[in-house]
Amino acid sequence: MLVLTLGMGLGRFLYTPMLPVMMAEGAFSFSQLSWIASGNYAGYLAGSLLFSFGAFHQPSRLRPFLLVSALASGLLILAMAWLPPFILVLLIRFLAGVASAGMLIFGSTLIMQHTRHPFVLAALFSGVGIGIALGNEYVLAGLHFAFSSQTLWQGAGALSGMMLIALTLLMPSKKHAIAPMPLAKTEQQIMSWWLLAILYGLAGFGYIIVATYLPLMAKDAGSPLLTAHLWTLVGLSIVPGCFGWLWAAKRWGLCLA
């Protein structure tokens, strides 16, 4: 859970509540902020493709790669506090996307080396929602005290550092790894990789606009309280969703779910 709370919830989606703050300060235009968001998603795509190569998945390399990705994610969050020029911010968010992909891939692979219990995997991905909710409430608390975006990014960097320490301490031991279970010759893949990529791409296309601009889109919702906490509700809804879809897969089958 902690892996994706940092890597996705903060490293990738803290930008969602921060976008209106940065736009209100006038440091960047809406167009520039949109390009910055796109740069992060491009980095996530690049990291996903890069880290799919087998050289990154040797058992002895997973822990160091995960920790490097976590460290990079925290440092890149902190780097946003410098308010560098647009091109550098674009690069920072691109690299943050690469780091987020690394945390997702190396974290999930490492966990599956130690357990195949579906409940644990659901808990892992629920970390995305926890991070989204935590990040949004953190930004709202900072705005209550009139913190600038620079201060908010600095605090988020410090929060990421604490998560990195906790992640390092809680990292599973190598001696607890379970033996790999190769597929039987008669066992076939449930879904081909290209179909899985299409489904994942369609899911991303469906949610990414809302996931980037929801605080701006909801500013005229009529309820200031709902507008402020709507992104938090999205994050919290992810948590039961992870376990709910797990139940649905058991109940009706993976493909139907």
From TrEMBL:
Keywords (A to Z) from UniProt: Membrane, Transmembrane, Transmembrane helix
Annotated SUPFAM superfamilies: MFS general substrate transporter
InterPro entries to which the protein is assigned, alphabetical: MFS_4, MFS_trans_sf
GO cellular component, one term: plasma membrane
Bilayer-spanning residue ranges: 33-53, 65-84, 90-112, 119-140, 152-172, 193-216, 228-248
Protein name: Putative permease
Species whose genome carries this gene: Escherichia coli
Biological classification of the source: Bacteria, Pseudomonadati, Pseudomonadota, Gammaproteobacteria, Enterobacterales
